[in-house]
Write a sequence for this structure.
């Protein structure tokens, strides 16, 4: 599908959703906004924008069933390794290394996220011709995968410059607003560009991470320690009191995984809807509603027990239930599971002369 074949009814809400996200980062400096409201609206709007932007994207790689089974194990290994790093290495050195690493990432993600909007807003002259041609080969790799070639024009340079300025400001200040903006952009790019291939793989992945999240949050202090131990845009922060520029404030948080992991599944269902009927986002609307209600459940339990909660404990059943049960009731479960983004559409037979 071409990017132009977007559901207009859904696409028109992307700009308001982005506006809500930006306003929620500014408003706490002027008035106290309850962190639960910030969390619910920011996470939901981020998932929505990422899903809609995923329509028409050419997915270069998809997750396999084996990848889905291994993902929680690999994630556990990485998580525990980060926990050991926090325990045995000075936080000062860790944050210096993270600052350098994430500076490059935030420049890249800012460029990728802002470019479509810059193309629509900035003068067409900036995009009329390439200003710089990049062509190089990745060391120690062979074949076509080692070749990197692309053009940069005026639009690209504007977006990169914005990324450099914002990234530099974040490295110096570690401001929570910049942290959230980059976290939102990382999440949008993840949902927009990651493909889990089909619903079966999605069910396997979400089910595995459902157990992963419960174990590392309820069974140990590892998840919470890692989330609080790194000054990096790996989570979104929501101030509990009136924010003051330049001062740290007590904040609630949500990890990017609680946005991206369910988000890629919701996005898959949207693309499934588009493949059948671009004007009827039946499964997307139900699964997205399930995500929002799962967030509400997470917040309600977190407030009731005043303790960190594994969000996937509530998000996974909500997303799977709100997509698979309607399919079962409509007798479309086989069609839903048959959808596969890795398969090329059948080509019409060649005409004989």
């Amino acid at each position: 599908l071409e990017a132009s074949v977007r559901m207009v009814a859904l696409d028109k809400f992307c700009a308001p959703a982005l506006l809500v996200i930006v306003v929620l980062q500014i408003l706490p400096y002027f008035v106290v906004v309850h962190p639960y409201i910030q969390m619910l609206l920011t996470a939901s709007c981020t998932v929505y924008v990422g899903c809609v932007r995923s329509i028409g994207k050419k997915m270069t790689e998809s997750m396999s069933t084996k990848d889905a089974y291994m993902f929680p194990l690999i994630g556990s290994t990485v998580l525990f390794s980060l926990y050991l790093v926090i325990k045995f290495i000075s936080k000062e050195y860790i944050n210096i290394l993270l600052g350098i690493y994430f500076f490059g990432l935030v420049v890249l993600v800012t460029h990728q996220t802002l470019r479509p909007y810059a193309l629509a807003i900035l003068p067409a002259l900036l995009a009329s011709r390439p200003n710089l041609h990049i062509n190089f080969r990745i060391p120690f790799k062979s074949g076509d995968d080692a070749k990197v070639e692309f053009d940069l024009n005026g639009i690209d340079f504007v977006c990169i410059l914005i990324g450099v300025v914002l990234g530099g400001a974040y490295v110096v200040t570690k401001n929570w607003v910049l942290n959230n903006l980059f976290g939102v952009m990382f999440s949008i790019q993840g949902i927009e560009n990651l493909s889990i291939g089909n619903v079966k793989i999605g069910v396997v992945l979400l089910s595995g991470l459902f157990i992963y999240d419960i174990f590392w949050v309820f069974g140990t202090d590892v998840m919470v320690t890692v989330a609080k131990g790194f000054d990096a845009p790996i989570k979104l922060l929501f101030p509990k009191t009136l924010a003051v520029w330049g001062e740290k404030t007590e904040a609630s948080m949500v990890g990017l995984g609680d946005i991206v992991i369910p988000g890629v599944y919701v996005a898959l269902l949207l693309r499934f809807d588009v493949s059948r009927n671009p004007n009827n986002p039946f499964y997307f609307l139900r699964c997205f509603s399930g995500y929002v209600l799962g967030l509400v459940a997470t917040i309600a339990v977190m407030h009731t027990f005043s303790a960190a909660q594994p969000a996937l404990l509530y998000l996974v059943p909500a997303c799977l239930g709100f997509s698979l049960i309607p399919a079962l009731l409509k007798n479309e479960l086989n069609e839903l599971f048959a959808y596969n983004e890795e398969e090329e559409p059948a080509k019409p037979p060649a005409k004989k002369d």
About this structure: The two ends are 30 Å apart (CA to CA). The chain is about 65% helix and 5% strand.
